[in-house]
Amino acid sequence: MKKTFIILLLAVAGVLCSTNIMAQSAQPQPKYVQITTIESVVNGGLGRSKMIVTKEDGSQDEKDLNNLFSMVGINFKNIRENESSIIGTLKSYTDNGWKLVSTVPLTLSPGNNGTGIFMTRYLLCK
């Protein structure tokens, strides 16, 4: 009787363990997309500004953004256009079920020569 109980207990434990492993492997793995914006702060509009989208398969799309400065100083039209482009890109992903999980703002301004960049990374998950 004791032997039968132990065998039955081991069989139930084995079934529970294999069911748990199968349930864990059946759960879909999260997918990630990263959107990076680099906005130049180079006087005279000579810098380069970009948006880079790294898709879940590792491929990348690159889109030009406007520089924040023109020959006469800060260019608010360019800032508005960049905002529209960034929001439009984020909206297209969130409309397709992606969720924004992290935003990391970065700034680089080496020296006092009027150059630098604003970089923001947006991490989305599905």
Helical proportion, percent range? 25-40%
Q: Sheet bearing the most strands, described?
A: 5 strands, antiparallel
Strand content: 25-35%
Structural class: alpha+beta
Distance between the termini: 52 Å
Low-confidence stretches: none
What does the radius of gyration come to? 25 Å
Mean pLDDT: 84
Shape: elongated
Strand order of the largest sheet: 3-2-1-7-6
Please trace the helix and strand order, writing H or E for each element. HEEEEEHEE
* Count of alpha and pi helical runs: 2
Describe the structure.
The model has no long low-confidence stretch (mean pLDDT 84). The chain has a 5-stranded antiparallel beta sheet, with helices on one face. The termini are far apart. It has one domain. The chain has helices spanning 2-26, 76-95; strands at residues 32-40, 49-54, 60-65, 69-70, 73-74, 99-108, 117-125. With 126 residues, the chain is an alpha+beta fold.
